[in-house]
Amino acid sequence: MRLTDLLHPHLDGVTTVVDATDGGLDLEPYLHLPGDVALHHGERDVGAGELVIVSYGPDPALHGTETDCLAVLRRMRPGGRGLVLFGHRGPELPYHPVLDALVAHRCQVLRAAPLDYAHLHAGAVFARTDELLPPHDWFGRPVPAEGFATALRMADEYVFGDLVSRTLRARLLDLEREAEEAERARGPVPEDGLAERLAAAVREKEHLAAALNGARERLGLMQARVAMLEGSTSLRVGRALVSAARSPRHEAARLPRELYGLWRRRTRPRAVSATAAPRAAVREAVPDGRLHLAHRAFASAPRDRLVIAGVLTGATAADLAADAVVNRVLPHDGRLVVRRTDPDALVVQLSACTGEGPWAHTGTGLAPDLDRRLAEVLTETRAAGRSCVLWRDGPASAAPGLTRLPWDAVLDADPGVRLAGLDPAAVGRQRLREVFRADSTRVRLSQLARRIGGPDPLEQRRVAVLADPRDRADVARLAAQVLCQKHRPAEVVVPDPAGLDELTAAGVAVRTGEPLAPWVADWTDLAEDRPDTLLLDLMCAQEYSGADAVGSTPAADDYTFVPELRPLLVRRSLLMSGAPPETWARRGHRLFAWCGKEPT
Length: 600
Prior knowledge:
It is built from 22 helices and 19 strands. Among the domains are: about 5-145, Rossmann fold (3-Layer(aba) Sandwich); about 305-430, Rossmann fold (3-Layer(aba) Sandwich); about 460-595, Spore Coat Polysaccharide Biosynthesis Protein SpsA, Chain A, CATH 3.90.550.10. The protein starts with a helix and ends in a 7-residue tail after the last strand. It is elongated and about 120 Å long. An 8-stranded mixed beta sheet has the order 14-13-12-15-18-16-19-17. Strands 2-1-3-4-6-5 form a 6-stranded mixed beta sheet. It is about 40% helix and about 15% strand. The chain is α/β, with parallel strands linked by helices and about 600 residues long. β5 and β6 form a beta hairpin. The model is unreliable at about 270-295 (pLDDT under 50).
């Protein structure tokens, strides 16, 4: 919740707001007060028609102290209102000293709510009164109750609220006790010589890695020498003679012809055409493991996408390939794939081991050879310093053997849904939003990336908003439109960042110059009405279509590719190219129409 959402419903009849915060907070950019409400600073008595703001938190230099907060309460007069801001998070809120002072000075709390800022986490509106006032609901509207009915409501709500909080506290205590017991069960960890043992383990790992690299180089050299020997004329003559000796009746008659062919190839000029050389190399190449990587992919540094080697189903591999480099591991080439592609992680999907496919029955005890090969792939991955992840998208009892393998992380989730595989007309726009935010394959990949420390695919969803506020009204309108978005922008690019401190406090970067986010939305016209689902729907349309620009058309086309549109969301690289929008389609860029209206 924004500070304006908590404060403005209680400004009825208020003509003066007094900022009594003694810390380093500058609250003026957060308030966006109406034109008929004046803002004053300093210490003064607060009476009817006035509202005082005070803060209290863990950082006295920023939020002020408890003493300052209590001093403000002593200056409250009948009819005055106040807003106390807390720098503490909800579970850590020490409200009891302030509560005692509020009661002592006849102040009633009308509404309390969490705040969505980096340094302010909660706020409470109160009033100095000589009679019981009706409480307010979540939207700041007074609840229709007076006198004894109000007291009953507040007492009953206190009892129910205490019941819920006691249940949550009991659950928290149980979890803390279980964590302590698990820590004790692991036993004490001796600290003597821990650094020395760690250094020795690191040295041993480096020694083994160097030995492994040396063995790989020697193996490659030997393979090259064997291939050279097998392609030599002497070896071919020897093979022909041995074959003739084994079957004189059938092979001896062919021997002179084969020797003559070898002699002709030996005396043929070495220079060959550019097209004939690859074909000859393919005919004479000796099959080895490297041929299995002919159609595999890899990513060179620096990486901005996950690289996965996986025991995956075909459908999962196809869905993940839209946001990551995916190489499916097969039983006969798993170690080679890990060695040559250098993945961020080896991912083993449980359903790929229990369903149909090359890894069927792995971990079930019915295919011990596959279990051994999977263990070898895990060993190769660990030797390369990469993570091994079990993607448990089914019951663990389906393949109990997998749980006995040494995993670095376990991801308990389904593979997710790819937006491009949905029918927007059938599932509806609300379902698209739900899948985009919680159930898409990109979200699942983000969960995987957090476990292995790889690049987060959700970084590709960051949006920059271009705006040009010219006065206080524009600044207030821009802050309201940005902070209400359900898919909040990552940055706001403006010519002058003055007055936009509220956006920075809410976690939105405010900068000048060129945007840095992958996607850009032009909000230069701040008078335009923008719903809170605007960026969410635009990003849903982009991820569904894979388009370079999403926008509207005069014909109100919806969820279809078009040759021209009014851009609402544009890929940063396309915007920075400087090409006019009417030429985008001719240059090969994909344009996707979105009308902004819910289908009926």
